[in-house]
Design goal:
CATH topology: Alpha/beta knot
Number of strands: 6
Distance between the termini: 30 Å
CATH architecture: 3-Layer(aba) Sandwich
Number of helices: 7
Shape: globular
Helix content: 25-40%
CATH class: Alpha Beta
Radius of gyration: 17 Å
Number of domains: 1
Order of helices and strands: EHEHEHHEEHEHH
Structural class: alpha/beta
Bound molecules: zinc ion
Amino acid sequence: MDKSYQVKRITNLYQSCNECGLPIINCICNKSVPVCTKAKLWILSSEREFYRPSNTARLLRLINPDSTEIFLWERTKSPKQLIDYISMEKYATFVLFPTENEKLENEKLENRKVEFKRTDRITAFIILDGTWKEARKIFRKSDFLKGLPVASLEPNYASNYDLRRGAVEGNLCTIEAAIEILKITGEIGPAQNIEDYYKLFLKSYRAGANGHELKG
Ligand SMILES: [Zn+2]
């Protein structure tokens, strides 16, 4: 996500901040307590996400800038930097698929599912960012993801993400997925910091959608 993408407004009273995505009166860019996770979080994103104020990948990058990278997925062009990372010996890379119902319809995928195990390599997770439909498309149409082990999440809490209509129940948004990953890999402290920031985002978003400044 770069400056060439202007995040859409959620209220016609205020422009959206291009960093956190919130209306500028509720910008939370300076309210994060930055973390630096050991696990790398690589977001492979549909272009539409770059415009969506409800996107949570940019929020993750704001609070965890050194270990989060966002890559644009394009049908006709491969994300070269990401492919280079995948090929590097120092990383143990997993792809995270928003699984749930996929189990029944795709046995092959089931065979690729693994339990996360720590190694002496740096753990990296690729998170697909988009609507459920977009994420599935990215997964299906990206040959460079085909050889990777699939990490599955069984979140033990319900998603708090209610900023989009038509979300599939039980699916986590991108930052929630990242939080769950960090719990699995044992980075509890950073996971908590990110979760606090995410909660502030949700509150600020809801107030901002009504054109209000978040007080307190
Ligand atoms: Zn901001």
